[in-house]
Amino acid sequence: MRALDRIRNKYQTKFRGKKPFFDFSLLAVVVLLVCFGFVMIYSASAYQSNLRFGNSMYFLNKQIQAAGIGFIVMAVLIFIPPKIYRLVPNWVYVVAAFLVMALLLIPGIHISSHGATRWVKLGPLPQFEPVELVKLFMIIYYARVLNKKQKDMTTFQSLFLPLIPLVILCGFIYFVSHNMSSALIVFIIPVLMITIIAKDKKKILLIWAGLVVLAAAAIGFIVLMDKTGHSAGGFRGGRVLAWLNPERYSADEGFQVLQALYAIGSGGLFGKGLGESIVKIGDISEAQNDMIFSIICEELGIFGGACVIFLFGILIYRLFVIAGNTKDLFNALLVIGIMCHFAVQVILNIAVVTNSVPNTGVSLPFISAGGTSVLLFLTEIGIALAVGRTIQIERH
């Protein structure tokens, strides 16, 4: 027994101490979602991309290239200490956000589609969406701001003041891009960060209630104007009306949503089979983008859609675990911002596809086709994993 005790003590001494935590579960879920995205992008786009570009793998190849770069960036960021983001002054993030969006004002390099200007093409470089960079800038900026002011956020004034730069930025985003959904997401993420860390939840809930009342009033005004024979809100007003009554607008604004609902319903519990979607052939334009969740449900059924939601649930939970275990408030706020970004995009995308909210262009992380989107999401995962490495766990 004494010999066994000596051996046990020897090896316990050898392995004592602490080591950095690494969330392999989070990394595994991300890799799984990206690979599943490859499969679904090819399935959703092969027919149309072959007609348009003579290459059935056109969109898949672009996604693989962007994801490859994204994984390289993620791998580098994992080993960069998160405290380095504190070395950059706050004003730099705000100015960078405005300058990036200002690229959309330069003639000849911006690309418009469906009434919005989202993309920029700089010479031989691939086109990218400036607003995706802005989302990351705002997450870091508000992690810094809230880290300093978290103890003082007890009054309406202290809750509203940090939002002033955000409101101005979102107004600028809408002005240069005419893209309401991008401005809305950039606004919601910091507000959610404030909601999570605010001490007085009653005051922050009153702010949310005010936003809901404003949204309801705007919808009511659009409906009232429509009943009196007038139009309000232009193209976006039409989307609100199509959301409330898609059958009435089945020839235009409501067409995409109706086809998405048909795809979900026709897929049943287990779907028609991978690659067997009908609506992707022409009923849903750009099926590999914002409406890809409807193709998932048509081909893999409600079960497949539920599995995708479950994977995103695990991803968000793992981010929550990292945020809850880091001892540094700034690091925790960084991960909270990233977690809010994923949650907002997933919820809005699925809500649009199921006609729970008005139709707007919101991608499904890692699954919708979009080089800038997958690159920035992988960048955020790299930052989150780097924060995870600051957590020290006991060696055994």
Distance between the termini: 21 Å
* Strand segment count: 4
Principal-axes geometry comes out as: globular
Mean pLDDT: 84
Counting H and I runs of at least 4 residues, what is the number of helices? 14
Helix content: 55-70%
- Category by helix and strand content: mainly alpha
Low-confidence stretches: 10-16
Largest beta sheet, briefly?
2 strands, antiparallel
| Total number of domains | 1
For the biggest β-sheet, the strand order reads 1-4
Radius of gyration: 23 Å
Order of helices and strands: HEHHHEEHHHHHHHHHHE
- The fraction of residues assigned to DSSP E strands is under 5%
Write structural notes for this entry.
By secondary structure, this protein is mainly alpha-helical. It has one domain. 66% of the residues lie in helices and 4% in strands. The chain contains 14 helices and 4 strands. It has helices at residues 2-15, 24-53, 58-78, 90-102, 130-149, 156-160, 164-177, 180-197, 201-227, 234-244, 255-267, 292-325, 329-353, 371-388; strands spanning 18-20, 110-113, 116-120, 392-394. The strands form 2 sheets. The chain has a two-stranded antiparallel ribbon. It has a two-stranded antiparallel sheet with strand order 2-3. Strand 2 (110-113) and strand 3 form a beta hairpin. The longest helix has 34 residues, at 292-325. The protein is globular, with a radius of gyration of 23 Å. The chain starts with a helix and ends with a strand. Mean pLDDT is 84; it is low at 10-16.
